[in-house]
Amino acid sequence: MTGIFITAVVGAVFTGALGYLLLPMLRALKAGQSIREIGPTWHNYKAGTPMMGGLMFIFGSVLCLTANIPFMEDYTAFYTLALALCFGFIGFLDDFTKAKYKRNLGLTSLQKAMLQMAVSAVFLYAMYRSGSMNTHLYIPFWNLKFNLHPIVYIFFAMFVMVGSVNAVNLTDGVDGLCASVTIPVMIFFTAVSVATERYDLALLPAALVGALIAYLFYNWHPAKVFMGDTGSLFLGGVVGAMAFALEMPLILIPVGFVYIVETMSDILQIGYFKLTHGKRLFKMAPIHHHFEMCGWKEEKIVLTFAAVSAAMCLIAWFGIQGLIA
């Protein structure tokens, strides 16, 4: 337990220091964010704010986990980290394309989807072959398990993984929002890992708790840097991979409640717009922009969404007591 707490603290220190060094470099490279034309007009002042700030908490968590290697016996956390890094690299390619060509759109949706599916398939197969993941589907709150055929489970898992990554990505639209919502999720995964005596697996989410807190010093409104797809896809990878590493993917429904609401608001908005020939269900989607249009300040949105995330993680904790009792 002491080592896990120290890892979180060191994650914060590493990330804070890396941010201090990285921010001038991003500014010098002119890796600034372009603002979408269909986004809120009052976000235009954010144009040019450095993106790819997710590199600071990515490097911070990598350094923390690497420093723990001499004390580790279970290396499942490195499968999780490897997957998240692959997703982060996809995000980096997207951000780099945006920065290089000075446009908001980077990789196409098809390119990102194909890369994400390929990465998920390789990760899940490697986890299954190594014995780090079984094909039992755990049902939270009912404390039931169903054994699925490996092929069925892997296809199900690919769908969940890619969905999780993109849902977290959608949440990154207001200063500090994605990091603030994800901190309670990482605390939850740390607590579950400890409760199930998988202390080595707890090191990655613990490192990210500290790293994301330090990152918020740079990303809190008004943001000095954005995490970009580099950071949000990395976080989505950790969220999805941790659920599968702990063999409880359905726990993402309560734990990832905010991510799901953000995604569903976007899907519903598009569907309603097409069905009604131009009418809108929300003032703007994803839903955090709807609240902005209703007059909420960015800080209020972030604190409210983070509180909802924390409450849902607490509910999820009670839903798995049969597994950890």
**How many β strands by DSSP?**
2
What general form does the structure show?
Answer: globular
How large is the radius of gyration? 19 Å
Q: What is the N-to-C order of secondary-structure elements (H for helix, E for strand)? A: HHHHEEHHHHHHHHH
Helix content: 55-70%
The largest β sheet comes out as: 2 strands, antiparallel
Distance between the termini: 18 Å
Which structural class is indicated by helix and strand composition?
A: mainly alpha
Please report which band the strand proportion falls in: under 5%, 5-15%, 15-25%, 25-35%, 35-45% or over 45%. Answer: under 5%
Question: What's the rounded overall pLDDT mean?
Answer: 88
Poorly predicted regions: none
Note the topology:
Layout (H helix, E strand, L loop, with lengths): L1 H27 L25 H14 L8 H26 L7 H22 L5 E4 L4 E4 L2 H22 L5 H19 L7 H17 L8 H18 L6 H4 L1 H19 L11 H7 L4 H22 L1 H4 L1
Antiparallel strand pairs: 1-2
Structure characterization notes:
- The structure is a single chain.
- With 325 residues, the protein is mainly alpha-helical.
- It is built from 13 helices and two strands.
- It has a two-stranded antiparallel ribbon.
- A hairpin with a 4-residue loop joins strand 1 and strand 2 (144-147).
- Helix 1 packs antiparallel against helix 2 and helix 2 (54-67) packs across helix 8.
- The mean pLDDT is 88.
What's this, in brief?
With 325 residues, the protein is an all-alpha fold. Helix content is 68%, strand content 2%. It contains 13 helices and two strands.
